[in-house]
Write a structure and sequence with these properties.
It is a single chain. α6 (196-206) packs across α7 (222-231). This protein starts with 6 loop residues before the first strand and ends with a helix. Strands 3-4-7 form a 3-stranded antiparallel sheet. 33% of the residues are buried. It folds into 4 domains: 1-76 and 243-321, HUPs (Rossmann fold, 3-Layer(aba) Sandwich); 90-242, Rossmann fold, CATH 3.40.50; 330-378; 382-479, Arc Repressor Mutant, subunit A. The chain is elongated. It has 19 helices and 11 strands. The chain has helices spanning 20-35, 54-66, 90-102, 113-125, 141-149, 196-206, 222-231, 262-267, 272-280, 295-301, 316-329, 332-339, 353-363, 373-376, 389-396, 399-411, 420-433, 439-451, 459-478, and strands spanning 7-10, 39-42, 106-109, 155-158, 164-169, 173-178, 185-188, 211-215, 238-242, 245-246, 312-313. It is mostly helical.
Length: 479
């Protein structure tokens, strides 16, 4: 690795499916790395053994791949700076902790939970800042032996110096913290598991991260992490903290607003490329104001200085609009393949590939999500259809509709079912025959009889693909 090589990472915890917030952070890291010719690394932070689950790890892999974000190094592809799972790096954290103990930047703390709670209660009562009192900083050998005899297991605390800490955030600008307000914090638990702030620094040092791009909810962790870098004599990476993603009501995005995991959006029928395009615009804007952009184009245009300081609002309406745009612009042959998982309840073998493409072309215009296609194409399958009571009463049970359908039943014998354009002409002739009825009355009756609906695909396509036998059967059933 060269000294100026760009190396960034996404380090999700496998305690749930990949959240859209983490996915957006991953995307920004990926875009930055690829724009600069650098490396994008995936690390799994699975030291929370109780909550970590291998199924969630797989979901992280699958979701990032679906988004087109292929990592250069990671648990499954390896790399020069592994292991890339924290649970496989425990001996590394121990070595770093010992280094901090030896240099005097850290010390053993033997306090019990009860003692810590009592100390906190006293500080609250006295209206003091709630920080650890350093009571274990200068214990005598006798005190330590006593604690060992009691069977206590110590944690390791990092000692916070008394000063101001400043750093330049690439998005937020200059940030300053008063370290007197922090207090000595635990870096290694009594069971030998590192805490987040310690493990992440050890990993980022070993993996030679040049930049840390993450959500602004991590900004309060930054001073602790910078202090650990300094204590270990390591180069401090550049930090960039991105505004949060809020729900449309400006509260934290949660399940009550709808899907929050990438896999949920994809299962619902959002195209991964549309979803990535939408995520990129949550907090970043293209220099030319463009909105619909493939990933390669976004990479070319991306820069940290165009990330907004404020939080971004997750607008479901905009995602739906964008997904619809992608659906309509996709080549129909590819769209059919993307849509097939949502057509499993139908016997697709009754149609050729060309006919399936004709169907999808005819119904795609109003689609917002791929999953909506199941309902949109249902009347193309099966001999008969279900007609709801409202359409039965308001459309099919009128005297005008009964007259239309009775006349159309005879007209069906002469239709050229193999030629959609000819069907359009023949339907035009039929509308003329039915005057003085309005064309809308005529076509509503036929459409309702054939599809159970008053709007949908082009009538020429419907008549052609249902073909003579099913058209006649459905007209008879409607009559």
């Amino acid at each position: 690795m060269t000294n100026n090589e760009i190396r960034v990472r996404i380090a999700p915890s496998p305690s749930g499916n990949l959240h859209v917030g983490t996915a957006r952070t991953a995307l920004f890291n990926y875009l930055f790395a690829k724009n600069k010719g650098g490396k994008f690394i995936l690390r799994i932070e699975d030291t929370d053994l109780e909550r970590s689950n291998e199924a969630y790890t797989q979901n992280i892999f699958d979701s990032l791949k679906a988004m087109g974000l292929q990592w250069d190094e990671g648990p499954d592809v390896g790399g020069a700076y592994g292991p890339y799972k924290q649970s496989e790096r425990l001996d590394i954290y121990t070595k770093y902790a010992e280094k901090l103990l030896e240099s005097g930047h850290a010390y053993y703390c033997w306090c019990s939970q009860e003692e810590l709670e009592a100390e906190k209660a006293l500080q609250l009562e006295e209206k003091k800042q709630i920080i650890y009192s350093k009571r274990c900083k200068n214990l005598s050998p006798e005190d330590i032996e006593q604690f060992k005899a009691e069977g206590r297991k110590p944690v390791i605390r990092f000692e916070i110096p008394s000063r101001q800490l400043k750093f330049k955030d690439l998005i937020k600008g200059n940030v300053e913290f008063d370290l007197n307000l922090l207090g000595d914090f635990v870096i290694m638990k009594s069971n030998g598991i590192p805490t987040y702030n310690f493990a992440v620094v050890a990993d980022d040092i070993d993996m030679k991260m040049s930049h840390i791009i993450r959500g602004e909810d991590h900004i309060s962790n930054t001073p602790r992490q910078i202090l650990i870098y300094e204590a270990l004599g390591a180069k401090i990476p550049e930090f960039a903290h991105v505004g949060m993603i809020l729900a449309p009501d400006k509260t934290k995005l949660s399940k009550r607003h709808g899907a929050t995991a990438v896999s949920e959006f994809i299962q619902q029928g959002y195209l991964p490329e549309a979803f990535v395009n939408f995520l990129a615009l949550l907090g970043w804007s293209s220099p030319d104001g463009a909105e619909i952009m493939p990933l390669d184009e976004i990479i070319q245009k991306f820069s940290l200085d165009r990330i907004h300081i404020s939080s971004a609002v997750f607008e479901f309406d905009k995602l739906n609009w964008m997904n619809g745009m992608y659906i309509r612009s996709m080549p129909v042959s590819e769209l059919v393949e993307r849509i097939k998982p949502y057509l499993q309840e139908f016997d697709l073998s009754i149609y050729t590939q060309e006919q399936l493409e004709t169907i999808i072309n005819a119904v795609k215009e109003p689609l917002v999500k791929l999953s909506e296609v199941t309902n949109a194409v249902s009347y193309f399958f099966g001999d008969s259809i279900n007609i709801d009571n409202e359409i039965q009463e308001t459309v099919l049970n009128t005297e005008e509709s009964k007259k239309v359908l009775t006349e159309f039943l005879g007209f069906c014998e002469g239709i050229d079912y193999g030629d959609i354009e000819k069907i359009h002409d023949q339907l035009g002739e039929f509308r003329t025959m039915m005057k003085p009825l309005k064309p809308k009355q005529t076509m509503w009756a036929i459409r309702a009889a054939l599809t159970g609906r008053t709007h949908g695909a082009d009538m020429g396509v419907i008549v052609s693909l249902l073909a003579k036998n099913r058209v006649i059967l459905r007209i008879k059933e409607a009559i």
